[in-house]
């Protein structure tokens, strides 16, 4: 088992580096975004997804899947964003059980102000420190991992979601 044991140890070392660096990166990004804009990454990601959706609206279930949030967590966040006037929630006309999350004019304005800050922080914390070959490896690894994770049950991913 020499080689495979060494391979496993090396892969576990890579895993540990990923967990530690991604945790620190997300925490620092979250802290700086919240401090500078008052917007946390969960709010930013939700507003961003809505801004990119057709008619700037998504069904709550679809939004939960895309953000890897448990439905209760998404409902709580959506309620807070609606109270701030950044999104509106409306019952689906065709399916009374379905709820739409819709980006409002104020939500669009908040996102428009936060996007340059987010881009600058991502550049400062990560992009500026990678070369093309490192980015290519990351793209290959994380695209493969993301595709695999999307194929698994949503429940565990929703419970452990780290926004960023």
Automatic annotation (TrEMBL):
Top-rank taxon: Bacteria
SMART domains: HTH_MARR
PROSITE patterns reported in the protein's UniProt record: HTH_MARR_2
Gene Ontology biological process: response to stress
Domain (HTH marR-type): residue spans on this chain: 1-147
Entry GO MF terms: DNA-binding transcription factor activity
InterPro entries xrefs: HTH_MarR-typ, MarR/SlyA-like, WH-like_DNA-bd_sf, WH_DNA-bd_sf
Gene3D superfamilies: Winged helix-like DNA-binding domain superfamily/Winged helix DNA-binding domain (1.10.10.10)
Protein name in the entry: Transcriptional regulator, MarR family
Higher taxonomy: Bacteria, Bacillati, Actinomycetota, Actinomycetes, Micrococcales
